[in-house]
Design brief:
Elements (H helix, E strand, L loop, with lengths): L1 H4 L8 E3 L4 E4 L9 H11 L3 E7 L2 E6 L3 H5 L10 H7 L7 E3 L2 H5 L1 E6 L2 E8 L2 E8 L1 E4 L17 E5 L2 E8 L2 E9 L6 H4 L2 H8 L1 E3 L5
Antiparallel strand pairs: 1-2, 2-9, 3-4, 4-9, 5-13, 6-7, 7-8, 8-12, 10-11, 11-12
Length: about 210
C-alpha cells in the first residue's frame, strides 16, 4: 500500500490546491497530505516560539501546551521497547491508536519535531502522524478559516486514502487510512472509521 511503501520528501512544497495554500516543513518526515499542510499553517501562525523569515515564507516551530496535553486521555496499551525508544525522540505530545492490535503492529519513526506510526493488517493501513514545525506563507491563510480540532477533524479523501487532520496542543496531527479495496471497503468510503480512529487516539507517555 502507498502509505506504508514509501516516504515523501518534505523538502518539496506540498500544495493545498483547493485553497491555494503552500507549505514546506522542516527535516523530512513521512508523508503528510495536503490537509495536514493546511492545519500546520494555521497552527504555525499562533504563538510561535521560533520564527525565521525566508522571503515571503516563515519557518515556525510551535510552542507546545503541555498542560493541555496532560488532560488528554492516556494510552493504556504498553509500547514495545523499540517503539518507545524511537518515539522518545519527538518533542511533542505523541498521540497513538488505543487499539492494542493496531498499536502492536505499528512501526514507529520520529525525529525532534515530528513522529509517525504506521500499522498494516487485515487489508488496511493506518498512519498516525504529528508535527510541530512548518514553513508557511502567512498571506495565503484564508480569512475566516476555522482550524479542525480533535472533536471536529477535517476529513477528506485523496487518491482513495481517507485522511483526517486536526490541531491540538500547538501541533498538527493526521490519521490516514488506506484500504486494499478503497472503492468497496466502508472503512475508506465512509467517514465513520477514520473519525473513530481520531477519537480513539490516546496520549502516550514516552518521556522518562
Amino acid at each position: 500500500m502507498r502509505l506504508n511503501r514509501k516516504r515523501r520528501n518534505y523538502d518539496q512544497m506540498a500544495l493545498f490546491a483547493a485553497l491555494g495554500l503552500h507549505l514546506a516543513c522542516a527535516n523530512s518526515p513521512p508523508p503528510i497530505p495536503h490537509q495536514l499542510a493546511t492545519a500546520s499553517m494555521a497552527a504555525a501562525l499562533q504563538t510561535p516560539d521560533l520564527e525565521l523569515n525566508t522571503g515571503q515564507l516563515v519557518r515556525v516551530r510551535k510552542a507546545i501546551d503541555d498542560s493541555a496535553a496532560g488532560r488528554h486521555p492516556a494510552l493504556t496499551v504498553a509500547l514495545n521497547p523499540v517503539q518507545l525508544r524511537i518515539l522518545r525522540r519527538a518533542e511533542l505530545p505523541v498521540l497513538l491508536p488505543a487499539e492494542a492490535a493496531v498499536l502492536n503492529a505499528g512501526l514507529a519513526t520520529a525525529e525532534r519535531d515530528w513522529y509517525s506510526l504506521s500499522s498494516n493488517q487485515d487489508g488496511l493501513t493506518i498512519v498516525v502522524q504529528g508535527d510541530r514545525v512548518a514553513t508557511v506563507d502567512p498571506g495565503m491563510i484564508p480569512a475566516g478559516w476555522v482550524a479542525p480540532t480533535w472533536q471536529s477533524p477535517l476529513v477528506t479523501r485523496n487518491e482513495g486514502i481517507a485522511e483526517a487532520t486536526f490541531l491540538a496542543f500547538g501541533a498538527s496531527y493526521l490519521v490516514a487510512v488506506e484500504c486494499a479495496q478503497p472503492d468497496r471497503d466502508i472503512r475508506c468510503t465512509e467517514d465513520d472509521f477514520v473519525v473513530h480512529a481520531i477519537a480513539s487516539l490516546r496520549l502516550a507517555q514516552v518521556r522518562p
